[in-house]
Fold ethanolamine-phosphate cytidylyltransferase.
Amino acid sequence: MSGLAPDGLPKGNRVWADGCYDMVHFGHANQLRQAKQFGQKLIVGVHNDEEIRLHKGPPVFNEEERYRMVAGIKWVDEVVVNAPYVTTVETLDKYQCDFCIHGDDITLTADGKDTYQEVKDKKRYRECKRTCGVSTTDLVGRMLLLTKNHHTQDEHIEQHVERARSLSTDNVAMSPWTRVSRFIPTTTTILEFAEGRPPKPTDKVVYVTGSFDLFHIGHLSFLEKAKEFGDYLIVGILSDQTVNQYKGSNHPIMSIHERVLSVLAYKPVNEVVFGAPYEITSDILDQFNVKAVINGFRDRDSSIVNCPLTSIDPFAEAKHRGIYHEVDSGSDMTTDLIIDRIINHRLEYETRNKKKEKKEADVAKALNLIKVEE
């Protein structure tokens, strides 16, 4: 154990982080990236479905999906399944962890108590910064609202804020932790996620492309299979406009910057291309010296709308060169299936979001973190 953590205190050897990690997104990944800076090894506890239903409401992803998604994040060394919802000193000792790290928001039990109170009292708690502008609650809200405001111009954000605010059962106060805000990407954030190394001359470069919206277990499984074809995996991320052109409706749910960070957080990925062309051209293949182009055959999108792109075979050049391969990810999960889960259980998730906001707002009022309107 050596060096100082971001908070200026000594680093630990094994350090603990825990959570639901439902609909794992780049905000979760950023918290885990920061947590890893506090110690040599990061141990992540993931709550089971029963615990989440009791304290928050129904999870979008089941526990097995969530365990796999957290294990795939490149800063995670070990995953502890069935982690208790309330973090205790006993848990830290059981897994030989010096302390736990959590974001600077609050996590509450079903009866409104701070889940980290015990470890805070025993000085076994450290804090990192929460990633503003994204949360599972917010992503669920985007799907329920069925708007495009998450990837339109800034002047429309107020309408999104007002509509999302109406989901709250308390019309005089909002939680300072669960609220609609706009994620502001910076080069620093992207560099913190990026591997930052070019391929070696001897590396076999593999290329895949797609929207990778609401990054899920199907995406992760596909990228793991693709990486098996070489040494260095480049992922082309389609622009918001391209995805919306062939998918229509409010797609993509996440902006390109959000989708890029989500993909960069995972172990198989070495590099991404922002706004990659829909068609994989000779320019792309030559510039990156691509030796294999991989496509999955499970995630055939049934919701593609009629548009000029549908008449293009994006893999034509790769097929011509004999470097095109198809793989079976082994997962039937798709972005559309996630959206269907949310829409089909709309009332349950709206109720979940309202309850979470209300509990947090009550605590925030008690702590004088928000001003109540008269």
